Amino acid sequence: MPKTLVIIPTYNEADNIEPIVSRVRDSVPDADVLVVDDSSPDGTGRLADALSAADPAVHVLHRTLKNGLGAAYLDGFGWGLDRGYDRFVQLDADGSHLPEQLPRLLAAADTADVVMGSRWVPGGQVRNWPWHRRVLSRGGSIYSRAMLGLPQRDVTGGYRVYSESALERMILADVHSRGYCFQIDMLRHAVSAGLRVVEVPITFVERSRGSSKMSGTIVVEAMGRVTIWGLATLLGVGQAEATEPTPAREPAA
Hints:
The protein is of the alpha/beta class. The protein is built from eight helices and nine strands.
């Protein structure tokens, strides 16, 4: 098995971090886990340290700033690239991404540069979501696909596998998004780089513990950025001119 790193960003996930890490270790015992904690005031980072002390395959990256999901993943990618990992998995801490389905995503990664766990392809499904969350998610994907010319069905989904070569070819320094829009930004860079992207159906399960960080305001802000990217493409404006500067990466722990 290629050297695989499962990256789990956390902020106030004390109720979820131990069970999700345990499920990942049970589902893909040959993979390592990296918890990227943004100084959670509820003690998530301390719990992750305890898990790391008990299991050499679990690592923790402590960040001093809470500056977005995308920034956490980018720091996680950098940590793993520096240590020679071949595959990088994005996985939510709240249990919405089922670790038990990860072997199927990793199998697909044998012949793809990027594997996306998809809710909106045949076989994919969502559990325990109210109708307005479904509308926001599907609507966001449809709008982003139309504005950016992306062929994938679930462009906002965050359960993904990237190969090391894919991350290198995507030039992560050019990925400027830090929040909800990060997943769309990563996908458009992958497609622009000519990478082979495949979608694998998954079951997305709404969290049962803790509070969601998602809101309508965040989605609207993301769609605004997608609009800017789409118009910039039509007008022939470069990516760097259509986004804000990238914050400096914090050093890896």
